[in-house]
Automatic annotation (TrEMBL):
It holds the Pfam family Trans_reg_C. The modification 4-aspartylphosphate is found at residue 62. Residues 139-234 form the OmpR/PhoB-type domain. InterPro entries: CheY-like_superfamily, OmpR/PhoB-type_DNA-bd, Sig_transdc_resp-reg_receiver, WalR-like, WH-like_DNA-bd_sf. Residues 2-126 form the Response regulatory domain. It comes from Streptomyces cavernicola. CDD domains: REC_OmpR (cd17574), trans_reg_C (cd00383). This is Sensory transduction protein RegX3.
Length: 238
């Protein structure tokens, strides 16, 4: 996933970019509000719809920018694109958070923050955008060959037959299924599904993957990418 990091402090940006890169993100760094807006919608483009196709999965927006107030930048971003925006700030008061959310921010992280929490929030807001090829028109279900996943009701069926999954099994399947073909790092999955760090949880992830393969009667559906993580292989369309 490409992530736009809007941060004027190069030292902070470098440290955060390194953490994000280790978790599979491609980070583009903007040092000002104007630079961020140019990255989201090039000035030579007259088509506002192109903002939604800029390729960024999330905008991580620091509010303390040198050229514009971060809230103002958030409002401009929201007018240009539906890309999820997470505000990052030292302002912890409730009024500031409400103001940011009213301007269109999807989430709000207060400094100092835990890296694991930030990663979980990034994955949470980014997975709200479901690829058109995975979702049926106008519904909240995912279709992957004989496998059907109903997101609102958390029900799964294979060839029309209901499959009983545990809560974590469903969360894991839904995470992978919303981005077929995308490799999810083990650390990323643990952060998103288990809301914790990788240490001591790796075996749990392996067990859940094995259980899903068995219950869905499709061992090839979830592919192991050796040394990295897992991805869901969308069945070929008939």
């Amino acid at each position: 996933m490409r992530l736009l990091l809007v941060e004027d402090d190069d030292h902070v940006a470098a440290a955060l970019s390194a953490v994000l890169a280790r978790h599979g993100f491609e980070v583009v760094h903007a040092r000002s509000g104007e630079e961020a807006l140019r990255a989201l919608l090039p000035p030579d483009s007259d088509d506002p719809d192109k903002a939604a196709k800029s390729g960024f999965g999330v905008v991580l927006l620091d509010l303390g920018l040198p050229d514009q107030d971060g809230y103002e930048v958030c409002g401009k971003i929201r007018k240009r694109t539906a890309t999820p925006v997470i505000m990052v700030t030292a302002r912890a008061d409730v009024r500031s958070r409400i103001h940011g959310l009213n301007l269109g921010a999807d989430d709000y992280v207060v400094k100092p923050y835990d890296a694991g929490e930030l990663l979980a929030r990034i994955h949470a807001v980014s997975r709200r955008t479901v690829p058109e090829e995975a979702a049926g028109p106008g519904d909240d279900s995912l279709h992957l060959g004989p496998v059907r996943i109903e997101l609102p009701t958390r029900q799964v069926s294979v060839a029309g037959q209901s499959v009983q999954l545990t809560r974590k099994e469903f969360d894991l399947l839904a995470l992978l299924a919303q981005r077929p073909g995308v490799v999810f790092r083990r650390e990323q999955i643990i952060s998103e599904v288990w809301r914790t760090s990788w240490e001591g949880t790796g075996r749990t992830l392996e067990v859940h993957v094995a259980s899903l393969r068995s219950k869905l009667r499709s061992p090839a559906l979830i592919e192991t990418v050796r040394g990295v993580g897992y991805r869901l292989v969308a069945p070929a369309q008939a």
